[in-house]
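Please fill in the sequence for the structure shown.

STRUCTURE ENCODING:
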């Protein structure tokens, strides 16, 4: 990768849903750069296209036109399904608003899932899961299931799961949307710290002005376009 090239970028991204009168132009020509070691916050009113944009950048959806670039040269949005899946497993961690934890699994077992998918051996899995749970402050809660944890603790499990396979890109759609404001601030601080510590190219969406102020860059969306 040429230095100065954004690790993740969108170029003239457009995403249209539906056809005819039901057509919705959710994203209408967005350019965005996300650099390693930086947290970019995507903000905007409800329906402005934040989730749609994050799904495009994270390879969870494909643009109607335009491109998603990795390292300036790999066109994520034009790779085969299998290649997208492999790239997601190796390079991208996801954090969800509703945590997305498996209720019958302990914190440890939830965090272990991506390593199992990547075929990491049991002893190495145990080591890596313990280390990341320690880093997010949950070492003492490793055996607990989601319903035995607070919302903030559940989201810490979510962050640990997103990062255990050592991705270099983090996508977090409203990661604090279900949390009270103090807990939201601590989760946001954790995401900021990990972004800087691990050199992640991180993109989060948020409605909260206090949280967006902690980001390195802010992108305001309005009606699917970047507002100057
Ligand atoms: N699968 C879909 N089919 C049809 N329309 C969709 C689909 N996904 C999103 N949309 C529409 O695209 C627009 C942008 O939606 P999106 O969820 O990206 O906005 P958002 O900014 O994330 O909103 P919120 O803050 O409420 O989560 C909305 O008008 C939405 O109804």
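FILLED IN BY: designer on duty
SEQUENCE:
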């Amino acid at each position: 990768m040429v230095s100065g090239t954004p690790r993740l970028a969108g170029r003239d991204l457009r995403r249209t849903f539906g056809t005819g009168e039901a057509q919705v132009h959710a994203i209408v020509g967005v350019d965005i750069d996300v650099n390693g070691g930086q947290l970019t916050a995507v903000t905007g009113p409800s329906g402005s296209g934040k989730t749609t944009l994050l799904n495009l950048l994270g390879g969870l959806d494909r643009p109607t036109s335009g491109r998603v670039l990795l390292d300036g040269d790999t066109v994520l949005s034009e790779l085969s399904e299998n290649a997208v899946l492999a790239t997601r497993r190796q390079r991208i961690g996801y954090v969800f608003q509703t945590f997305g934890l498996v209720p019958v699994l302990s914190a440890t077992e939830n965090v272990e899932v991506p390593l199992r998918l990547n075929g990491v051996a049991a002893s190495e899995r145990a080591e890596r899961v313990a280390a990341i749970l320690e880093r997010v402050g949950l070492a003492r809660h490793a055996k607990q299931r989601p319903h035995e944890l607070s919302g903030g603790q559940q989201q810490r499990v979510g962050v640990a799961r997103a990062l255990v396979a050592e991705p270099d890109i983090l996508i977090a759609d409203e990661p604090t949307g279900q949390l009270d404001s103090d807990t939201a601030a601590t989760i946001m601080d954790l995401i900021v710290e990990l972004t800087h510590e691990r050199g992640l190219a991180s993109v989060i969406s948020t409605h909260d002005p206090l949280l967006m102020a902690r980001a390195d860059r802010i992108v305001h969306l309005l009606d699917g376009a970047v507002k100057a």
